């Protein structure tokens, strides 16, 4: 059974950096959108069967993983011949907070902590999700990695981000569901790291080797 981690030393933390999908918002939406919904739309658009569409798309998705293109809905609109922003906006009502995430953000605010969203999601994806979930209203600042020219798992991202956001890594907590992203943040010197074990509410919790894991952000404070 998963044991909640020891309490953090909140007097030593000023800034809390937070991922979006899989940390604050349920990754169930994104997994469904890219693994089921987009392939179904692509199949209809290109006159393919469901299995044929999946066989066509999955290798292309995997080839882009880890690059900024993987997160770029403009890139996928061009690649797939689909209006990905429009398709996503049509189903944005299915975007959902991870249970306890809103209360977690409220508790951080009560403690006087700076709450900064830093996501690999494209700025338009962020805007679409904000339309439904009011992310901006729950946070002190919101950033997409796209204007910095590298995803969060790329070590080049962190100095660029820090030059604009101005946080002290030694007094910062970062929460994400991606272990490569957390590894890059550790390389930048961020002192406190937490890995979300269950980013998708429809799937079992995962191990987080090398990082302190939490079932969800609700365990953190």
Q: Gist?
A:
The protein is 40% helix and 12% strand. It is an alpha/beta fold. The protein folds into two domains: 10-27 and 96-219, HAD superfamily/HAD-like (Rossmann fold, 3-Layer(aba) Sandwich); 29-93, no CATH class.
Poorly predicted segments: none
Predict the CATH topology of the largest domain: Rossmann fold
State the domain count.
Answer: 2
Number of strands: 6
Query: What is the N-to-C succession of helices and strands?
Result: EHHHHHEHEHEHEE
Largest β sheet strand count, sense and barrel closure: 6 strands, parallel
For CATH, the homologous superfamily of the largest domain is named as: HAD superfamily/HAD-like
CATH class of the largest domain: Alpha Beta
Distance between the termini: 20 Å
- Helical residue percent? 25-40%
């Amino acid at each position: 059974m998963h044991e909640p981690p020891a309490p953090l030393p909140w007097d030593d933390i000023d800034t809390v950096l937070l991922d979006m999908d899989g940390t604050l918002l349920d990754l169930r939406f994104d997994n469904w959108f890219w693994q089921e919904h987009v392939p179904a739309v692509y199949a209809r658009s290109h006159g393919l069967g469901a299995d044929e569409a999946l066989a066509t798309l999955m290798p292309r998705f995997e080839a882009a993983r880890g690059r900024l293109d993987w997160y770029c809905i403009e890139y996928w609109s061009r690649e797939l011949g689909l209006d990905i922003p429009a398709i996503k906006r049509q189903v944005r009502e299915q975007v959902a907070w991870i249970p306890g995430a809103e209360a977690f953000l409220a508790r951080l605010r009560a403690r006087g902590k700076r709450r900064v969203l830093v996501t690999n999601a494209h700025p338009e994806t962020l805007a679409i999700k904000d339309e439904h979930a009011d992310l901006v209203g729950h946070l002190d600042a919101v950033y997409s990695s796209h204007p910095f020219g590298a995803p969060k798992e790329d070590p080049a991202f962190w100095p660029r981000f820090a030059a604009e956001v101005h946080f002290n890594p030694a007094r910062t907590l970062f929460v994400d569901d991606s272990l490569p992203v957390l590894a890059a943040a550790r390389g930048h010197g961020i002192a406190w790291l937490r890995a979300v074990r269950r980013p998708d509410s429809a799937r079992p919790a995962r191990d987080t080797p090398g990082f302190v894991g939490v079932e969800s952000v609700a365990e953190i404070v």
